[in-house]
Structure formats: C-alpha cells, structure tokens
Amino acid sequence: MEYYVDCECSSYVTVELFQAGTSVECEDCGREVKIPSSVKLKEMAGDKYPNASPLERAEIAIENGERPFDGQCQRCRKVAAEVVQPANFRFLQERYFDHDGGVDMSYKGPVSLVAGAPTEEHWKTLAIPLMFCKQCYDDFTLDRTSSARASAPTTLLHLVGWAALLLLMICLCIFLPFVGIPVAFFLFARLVQWKTRKKGDPVLLNFVKKLRWVGAVVSREDEYTLTLGESRPLKTD
C-alpha cells in the first residue's frame, strides 16, 4: 500500500510502509520530507476502503471529490482550481482467445500468454478530471505544445523508416517469398510492439501518474490509451 506525506511546498511524497522513520526527497521542491512512524502513517492514511483495489479507490476519490479532486489546483496545490479538463484513461482488462485457455490482462492478476487470435476484449475507461488554476493550465498547455514540437521530427523519421521497411517487405514477398514471409511477420510484430509503446502525450502521462490513487492504476497497466478532452471552467457551489 502507498502512503502520502505532505511537503512544505504543498506537494506530497509517496512512500511505502518500510520507509517509515526515514527521509525522502520531494520531487517538486527538493526538500527532505521526514517520514513518520509506521503507526502514524496508518493513522494519517485514514483509508475508509482498505480492501478496495487501486482502480476502485481512484473511482471513489473522483466520485466523492477527495484529494486531489477536491477543487484545488492539482499542479501547484496552492490555490483553487478554475479550469477542469477531462482525461480518459482507457485500458485493457481482459482478452480471450479462441484456442484452449486464454490470457488475462487484468491488473488484478498475472499475465498468462496463449497463442491464437483474440476473439473478445474487455476495455474500461477511467474518466479523470484534471483541475488547474489559470496560470497552471497555461503552463501545462505550453509544456504539452513544446513537447509535441520537439518530438515531431522523431515521429516523422519513424514513419519514413517504417514506410521503407514496408516497401522492402513487399519486394521480398514477391521475389523471395521463403525469406520475405518470415521477415514480414517479424516486421509486423515489431511495428505492433512500437505502436504499443506509444502511450500518447508524455507530459500528460507524467502529470496523471503523479495524481494520488490514479497514478497507481496507470503504472500497473500495459495496454492503454490516454486522451485529453476539451477544457471548461470549473463550476463551484
């Protein structure tokens, strides 16, 4: 289980129970945060749902408006949020195959691989409300734009490279089928693997991973997509 200890900079550090009594550096400000005893950590956690899975705990926090979904800016944690932008985390829970056995991709259990084409997949979407003050929203948007511009040349080179490999694969299949077909399968597998690693916007992903409860869900999944919706003013009662 993860525990959260507040820092003087209004951020917090994430620790495990074995780190009780030690000091941990805050990733945001660099301060040394003193971690209390294991008994105090459990008292501070105040978790009303000790048996809930990470996904269930994240859903409860979002539904009940618990920290970090309590209306404070999630980026600076210093002022009230003015803007909310939904992020949709869609991940694979289960995949079934038409051969004997199957594969369970659920975060709750181990992965067991079986050859065969998948016949049924179950995906789930966790809607994550990202809350920002106006300044942090502008900074977050700028960071995402800068990151996209910086990665554009690399993405283009990847696409050109895969196009060249595709042309080579077609030529091999036509003129040297005994060589071309195995190579085609190999290149296709590598393309799928490369595509699977493309999780989306790295700035968005890093931000979501730092959110309490939600970060544990994201870190445990392997096949997922993370997309961002339109922002809107945050309505407060």
Description:
There is one protein chain. Strands 5, 6, 7 and 8 form a four-stranded antiparallel β-sheet that branches. Strands 1-2 form a two-stranded antiparallel ribbon. Helix 3 runs antiparallel to helix 4 (177-197). It has one domain (47-233). It has 237 residues and is of the alpha+beta class. The chain has helices spanning 38-45, 54-64, 134-175, 177-197, 202-209, 214-220; strands at 3-6, 12-15, 23-25, 32-34, 83-97, 118-132, 224-228, 232-233. The longest helix has 42 residues, at 134-175. Helices cover 41% and strands 22% of the residues. It starts with a strand and ends with a strand. The chain is built from six helices and eight strands, in the order E-E-E-E-H-H-E-E-H-H-H-H-E-E. Keywords: Membrane, Transmembrane, Transmembrane helix. The chain crosses the membrane at residues 159-189.
